[in-house]
Amino acid sequence: MEGKANIQDVAKRANVSIATVSRVINNQGGVRKQTEERILKAIQELGYIRNAAARTMKSKDTKTIGVIVPDINNPFFPSVMAGIEQKARETGYFAILSSTNESPVVEQEILKNFIERGVDGVIITTANENGDHLKQVHEQGIPMVAVDRSIQYYDVDTVLVDNVKGSYQAVQHMILQGHEKIAIICGPQNTTPGRERFIGYKKALEDYNLKLDERYIFQGDFGERSGYQGAHQLYSLDDRPTAIFSSNNLMTIGCVKAVGDLDWKLGEEISFFGFDDVDIATFLNPKLSVVSRPMHALGELAFQLLHERIQFKDPVPKREYKLSPELIIRESCRLRYPKNSPDGQSLKK
Question: The HTH lacI-type domain covers which part of the protein (predicted)?
Answer without folding.
Answer: 5-59
